[in-house]
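Design job #97: recover the sequence.
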C-alpha cells in the first residue's frame, strides 16, 4: 500500500469512506446488513477461503460492491457475477 504524502490532496472519498457512510445510513434506517462478509469458494464439496469478501450484504439478499473510481470497468461486473455464482453454490 502506498502512503499519500501530505502534499497530495485527496481527490474524493475512498471505498472505505463510502462503505462506512452507507453502513451508517443502513443502521439508522434499521436495515440489516453485514460488512466485509467472507465469500468462500466451493470446490468439490470443499469450502475454500480464497480471500473474497462482499463489501455489504443487505437484508441477506442484496450484494453491494462499492467502488470509488472514475470509470466502471468490465472487471467490476465480473466480480459481482462471480459472487452471485458462489452464493448460489454454482
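Job complete. Output follows.
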Amino acid at each position: 500500500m502506498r502512503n499519500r504524502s501530505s502534499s497530495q490532496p485527496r481527490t474524493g472519498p475512498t471505498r472505505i469512506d463510502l462503505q462506512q457512510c452507507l453502513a451508517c445510513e443502513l443502521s439508522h434506517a434499521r436495515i440489516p446488513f453485514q460488512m466485509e462478509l467472507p465469500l468462500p469458494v466451493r470446490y468439490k464439496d470443499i469450502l475454500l477461503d480464497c480471500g473474497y469478501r462482499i463489501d455489504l450484504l443487505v437484508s441477506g439478499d442484496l450484494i453491494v460492491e462499492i467502488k470509488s473510481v472514475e470509470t466502471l470497468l468490465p472487471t467490476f461486473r465480473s466480480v459481482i457475477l462471480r459472487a452471485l455464482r458462489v452464493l448460489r453454490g454454482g
